[in-house]
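Dear Dr. H.,

I hope your travels went smoothly. While you were away I took the liberty of generating a structure for the chain from your last submission, since the lab meeting agenda had it listed for discussion. I wanted you to have the full record in hand beforehand rather than looking at slides cold. The sequence, exactly as received, is reproduced here:
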Amino acid sequence: MGKIIAFCNQKGGTGKTTSIVNLASFFALAGKKTLLIDIDPQGNASSGLGLDKDSFENTSYEIFTQNIPPERGIYHTKIRYLYAIPANPSLAGAEIELVQLENREFRLREIISKVKENFEYILIDAPPSLGLLTINILVASDSVIIPIQCEYYALEGLSRLFQTLDLVRERLNPDLEIEGVLLTMADFRTRLTFQVIDEVKKFFKEKVYQTIIPRNIRLSEAPSFGKPIYFYEPLSTGAKAYFNLACEILKEEIKGVYDGEESIRQRVGSFDTQERNSADPERIRLY
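The corresponding predicted structure, in token form, is as follows:
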């Protein structure tokens, strides 16, 4: 049965979507059957995996609002073992439609319960807000990863996120845990970065991941090519950082990913030759 992890921070620009896309790809490279569910109306996680989010008949919006079986919205990505439920801007209207439904906070949990036995990990990209979509995500999840950028306003607004987490635990999902706190966009040339790292570690203590994601131009470029960082620039510092983070979260060494330049070149090249994301993408066959 899959472990369900939400990536959540209502503050935008924290590296949330970059983190979920790259961790999902490394989980899949580790041989873990992984499902990424995009619940952000911007659909950046979908496009970051090379999915044409406007070409899919069923997205997270249709599954949320039209009682479509979730397996009809699960698609292969170009990476073996990695599947996705994409999102597009239509999802922005889902919050209004959900308000009218009974047990609206449990909608996503009911959807995921139908497919979670088919995956080892289910990663959910939350929108940068604390509305009904995010509440659904927190109710459906086992734990949450909180990305925090190493900048001046890093801790601003986190109190509201923790109030929301406490309310969800109290009323809707008592088992929800903090999986970890992820420091992103670290510029180790500046004193501010080290000050923010110290403050975050004082506040969250052992929940802070040892791996810190650096500010890296290749990480910024990769989404415009529709590729996770490993398939864009596998030897970049950003790629190595997310590889180390995936090993830290999985608590195991991921073998075979960095086992020689020729092997890396072949694996990276296979991403460009895969044709699973055409206008009529092949759906996963769960049953």
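Two observations you may find useful: Residues 3-273 form a domain with the Rossmann fold fold (CATH 3.40.50.300). The longest strand covers residues 177-184.

With kind regards,
E. W.
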